[in-house]
Amino acid sequence: MQAANPRRGYLLGISAYIIWGLFPLYFKAIANVPAVEIIVHRVLWSALFGALLLLVWKHPRWLADLRSNPRRFGVLVASGALIAVNWLTYVWAVNNGHMLDASLGYYINPLINVLLGMLLLGERLRRLQWLAVTLASIGVAQQLWLAGHVPWISLMLALSFAFYGLIRKQAPVAALPGLVVETWMLVPFAIGWLLLNPDSMSRQPEFWSSTQWLWVAAAGPVTLVPLLCFNAAARHLPYAALGFLQYVAPTLVLLQAVLLFGEHLSTSTLTAFAFIWAALAIYSVDAWRSLQRNKLLLAAQN
Which of 196, 229, 253, 262 is deepest in the core (most CB within 10 A)? Predict the structure, then answer.
């Protein structure tokens, strides 16, 4: 197994989240395509581009290793299903005027990562970390109270991606082969949807004679690159540290929602954001202090 390289992990993680943060610009460009159909093409083109990339970027024995351990296939089936749910929810939210809800979901996600790390990976939380999680929980609760409904878009995005990251971190499969297997397992469902929907845009001849198909085909590399960065970063960073890089993406989404696409930032949503921003700030300070302590301990040992 490759040795952890935190510097490389941070660079890969930040790159992934910047690309994800700019995703709304791409999805707005193909907003006339229904969300489900966008996901169908995301699956198909990601599978194609991933397979082609795998031919160039060699990973010796990856298929033999998967065949010798059927459990890994099961893990990738689960992670593939989770990422498909996440994709569909996100695309629908962006193209139906819910970018702020999407942004809130990805602010919540790092805190769910922290809880999963504690509950499932045995990671212990310090007092400031508990305070951060508590503040975030208050923010979500007041959003529920003031808005009068469950912020299902935010919670769906946060939970699906948190569990996706957790599963992929635990699966001993390299980033690219894992992504290729995930997407190819979804290909039969994507083809089945197209066969059952003859009136869909991409079943019409005029779709393929326009530039629209090129925009849709771009979903392959657009999807593949940040996921590759994310999965590679997950192998170099602690899960909680990886999760807290994620505030880069929702910040970019929030700025686009308000400044470019004119979404209204209500009092309840702003209050929820304020609690979660405070939680992120506290957790970041605690993480920095912990890093400094570890450096001093390491220096003393040497």
Answer: 253
Q: How far apart are CA 47 and CA 186, in angstroms?
A: 9
How confident is the model over 151-206, as pLDDT tens digits? Answer: 789 889 999 988 988 888 777 677 778 888 889 999 999 999 999 999 999 999 99
Nearest to 48 by CA among 146, 227, 154, 179: 179
Q: Closest Cα partner for 161 from 209, 231, 220, 56?
A: 231
Q: Which among 186, 175, 173 has a CA at the least distance from the CA of 82? A: 186
Q: How far apart are CA 260 and CA 262, in angstroms?
A: 6
**Alpha-helical regions (H) of 22-98:** 23-29, 35-56, 62-68, 70-95
Q: Which of 155, 141, 117 is nearest to 287 (CA)?
A: 117
H or E stretch covering 16: helix 6-21
Q: Which residue ranges make up each domain of the chain?
A: 6-301
